[in-house]
Amino acid sequence: MPRRLTLLPLSLVLACGVLLAGCGDLVVQTGPLPQAVPLPQPALVRTDAGTAARNFIAVVGRMEPMVEQECAARSRRLNCDYQIVVDDRPGQPPNAFQTLDRAGRPVIAFTLALIGEAQNQDELAFILGHEAAHHIAGHIPKSQQSAVTGALIFGTLASLGGATSASVQAAQEVGATVGARRFSQEFELEADALGTAIAYNAGFDPERGAAFFARLPDPGNSFLGTHPPNADRIAVVQQTLVGLRGF
Fold it and tell me: Global pTM?
C-alpha cells in the first residue's frame, strides 16, 4: 500500500536535527548458512541530533552514487534514479523502507527515529544498501505477483468447496497474505547480501553496520514471519564479506 510521506530535502535535515533528540528505543523491522560469529552488542548511546543528521547526509552522499551504479549495472529496464528521503511523520518508530512513487521511481525513506538511533555511519550505510537492494532485486513486483497467485489459488479452492462469496473473499485475502510472505525471508537475506556488497564498495564496514541486529528482538523461525532469524542475517553478511575480501 502506498505510504504518504513528508519528504524533507537532505539539505534541510540538519535544520530539523532537533527533532532527532526525542527518538525512542530501536525497534527496526528490516541452502543452509554457516554459523554466524556473534557480533558484539554495542551499547546504545544516543547520538546527538546534529551528529545524527550529519552522519545521515554523509552516508547518503557516498552511498547514492554506488546504489545507482549497482542498479544500472544489473538491469537496464529499472528506474535507478533513487530518491532518498526523511519520513518525519509524528510518532513513527525507527524504521526504513523502500517503495515506488507513482512514476515508478524508487524511494528509500528513513524515519527520524532511525536516523537518531543509528550508532554510526556504517549502520546507516548498511540499512540504505539493504533497502536499495530490494528495488534492484525486484522484490516489490515479485511479492505482488506472489500475493495475486496466492489469492487466486485460495479463492479457487474455496469456490470449489461451495463457499459463500464472503468466504471466498476471505480465502482470497488469506491467500494473498500467504503468497506475499512466501518469499519474504528469502528476499530479506538476498537484500542483506547485495546491501553488504554495496556498502562495502562504498567504503563502509557492513559487519559493523549489521551489529544493529544485536539490538533487535529475534523474529525466530515463524512460518509466515516476514524476517529471518537474526543469526541467519549476520551469517549472510559475514559470508558475503568473505567473498568480497577474497578470504
Answer: 0.70
In tens, the pLDDT along 131-157 reads 999 999 987 766 555 545 545 554 455
Q: Under a CB-based contact definition with an 8 Å cutoff, are residues 217 and 131 in contact?
A: no
The C-alpha cell at 190 is 538476498
Please list the ranges in the chain whose pLDDT falls under 50: 1-36, 147, 150, 154-155, 175-176, 178-180, 182, 221-225
C-alpha cell at 63: 552511498
